[in-house]
Amino acid sequence: AEANKHLDYDVLIVGAGLSGLYSLHRVRQLGLRAKVLEAGEAEGGTWFWNRYPGARFDSESYSYIFSFSQELLDEWTWTEHFSPQPETLKYIQFFTKKFDLKKDIQFNTRIQSAQFQSPGNHWLLTDESGRQYTSRYIITAMGILNQPTLPVIPGVDDFQGQAWHTARWPADHSGLAGKRVGIIGTGATAIQTIQEIYKMVGTLTVFQRTPNWTAPLRNSKISEDEMALIRQRYPEIFQQCLESYSCFIHVTDSRKTVDMSREELFARWEELFQKPGFSKVLSVSADVATDREANRLYSEFHANKIRARIHDPVLAEKLIPKNHGFGTRRVPLESGYYEAFNQPHVRLVDINENPIERITDKGVKTRDEDLEFDVLIYATGFDAVTGSFGAVDFEGIGGKKLKDTWSGGIQTYLGLTVMDFPNMFMIMGPHQMFGNIPRSIEYAVDWVADFLEFARDNDVRFVQPTQEKMDSWYSHVERLGEGLLANEVDSWMTGVNKNLAGKQKRSLTRYNGPAPGYRKECDAVKARKYSDFVLG
Ligand code: NA7
User: Fold this and answer.
1) Calpha distance 94→60 (Å, rounded)
2) Ligand 1 test: best mutation among 189, 207, 364, most atoms within 8 Å of CB?
3) Is the whole-model pTM more than 0.80?
């Protein structure tokens, strides 16, 4: 830290969501001078911005939080098995207060550029207002879904009613009562939104391009007694997360689908279907994710579940995905989504049959109809994973731009670092383990903190991976993805966003393998005392 005295900070952290908050806590524990720069007016990141009605975890609340502090686990009480957004935000506020993090967070500060300074080996960050900040290291903690994208439809600016993206929901939505509302999109966000807002609006029209698989969440309240039991079970819960493929508590069935009789199979699937949470996604046999026939059978099982819930058989077929199998895109969990469509005031417009031609001043003009709305909601997703990086002008050694480095495909080492962008660590960067996000965040932040401790003790002022290491990481991640049906489908997980010119083709976006394998690789790099990196 002596060597950094002329700099404003040892470490600058961009973003005050879970990644940034925990980074700040860990970095401060090392005695380093740190600051979090956050664009929003308060902490919470994803859980600050996404406050649409119905926003909630679809992972068990007590598995989807920080595990590092026994005190925090003891003091916090969850009231629902799948926490709604307001409670999650309160948890984050509680955490922030408990560890006195706010004094080192600067809100309302949107970083516009980040330039690596060589000579000097430090970073220079500039915010929107032109204010500058210097530090030896930077940690990007910007989130994987934080740049909302609007649909590319002519006339989006013409609409004279109220319109917003789900990630920019107005604080007060009492204005929806009795209104004629249209919603575009049927992804995870839309599914959670639709199943809530149909209860308050006058009419709801859902514009669907691709139906998604979704299955019952089966949320329930947590009593005080149950919470006491959960507290006792925390070590066991986190151990389960540690051992599982993607850090969830659900255990994959070790049997092969083809080895099971039809009776056995359907009895098992029915059992999983009745359970709360991701069991129906994660506790089936692993071959459902790779074997076409297994996947087809399981998809058909779910299609029949949908058919049983939708009164109109023609409508039911429209709501059943035909071009991608169950689990090949992120499966959100629902509470009454299908029942919404049985209501006379809710209508589905399949835009493959009746395309949207333009947004007008009064609503939406489809090929066949002129529809009028008071409110238009865009549940149209995000410029995922790399979008946060695209929003900042990252400049590395020799004026190299990060967007150029990644233009032909994302390159990273461990999903944590990039060559030519020294002293920069990414939390939830591309090619990093996603799965249970808080579990992945905790691991990545701990790994980075361990490195910073090493750097502090060994007076390291420069760190970057080599091209060779990035190439081998890319091949490793690519190899792990072979045979995954999910990688044959367009989604934000495979780097596709049809509303963005640069994201029309699939690319390698996330780490494709099991979390224990990811951690093994990263642990080995640490055990080698970071000799995989160029250190200076
Ligand atoms: P998603 O999953 O990217 O969903 C976006 C939805 O919006 C999806 O149904 C899209 O259809 C639809 N969309 C996007 N653009 C258009 C246009 N131009 N016309 C019609 N429909 C469109 O984002 P979410 O916010 O729902 O979820 C993101 C993640 O957040 C989720 O996985 C959770 O982990 C939390 P498409 O499928 O592209 O045909």
Assistant:
1) 19
2) 189
3) yes
